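DUF7144 domain-containing protein
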Amino acid sequence: MSATHTPHASSAKYAWAGGLRVFAAVMLGIAGLLAIFRGIMAIAEDDVFVRTPNYVFQFDLTGWGWVHLGLGIVAALVSFGLFTAAAWARYSGIAIAALVIIANFLSLPYYPWWSVIMIAMSGFIIWALCVDRGEDAGVGR
């Protein structure tokens, strides 16, 4: 085999990264949908949430509901863009997942276990979107 056969090797080398993009799209869509539900619950002031009086970042539960609802809607929309392998969606997905991490950190006292789970899930989303280099990987060259 000649050296011109290397695009196939490059393609095989980075093929797993495309799977990570799909993983990130699915997980961002799920995280967005769950954030939408969490936002609706907080806006309705459901009794599911814990109230801690001595937290440094203390905000109104309804305000947090609107924050999570907005982030959830944007995350769900960006996840659809990730299925098309659009570069804007990849960068937006990283930014939205980072905002989800910050929002869940700040709302830890209201729903602690779920906040920790969402922080971890968003970390995996950021990792998957950073590993998938898309067209930059040299696939097919």
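thats it. The chain is about 70% helix and 0% strand. Confidence is low (pLDDT under 50) at residues 136-141. bye
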